[in-house]
Design brief:
The structure is a single chain. By secondary structure, this protein is mainly α. The protein has one helix and no strands. The protein starts with a helix and ends with a helix. The mean pLDDT is 96.
Length: 55
């Protein structure tokens, strides 16, 4: 019985580690997406300003 509890505990620890890793990756992806969106908005604003001068 003790062996089964140890195996269960080990499995749960592995699951927690995996979930933590996925959570960290999701947070990193969200930051990268936010930076990409910000850069795209800056590029759009710059293009809009350039169009004003050309028209």
């Amino acid at each position: 019985m003790a062996s089964q509890v140890e195996q269960l505990s080990s499995s749960i620890s592995e699951m927690v580690s995996g979930i933590s890793s996925v959570t960290n990756q999701a947070q990193e992806l969200a930051v990268a997406q936010e930076q990409s969106t910000s850069a795209a908005n800056l590029a759009k604003n710059s293009a809009d300003e350039t169009k004003k001068f050309l028209t």
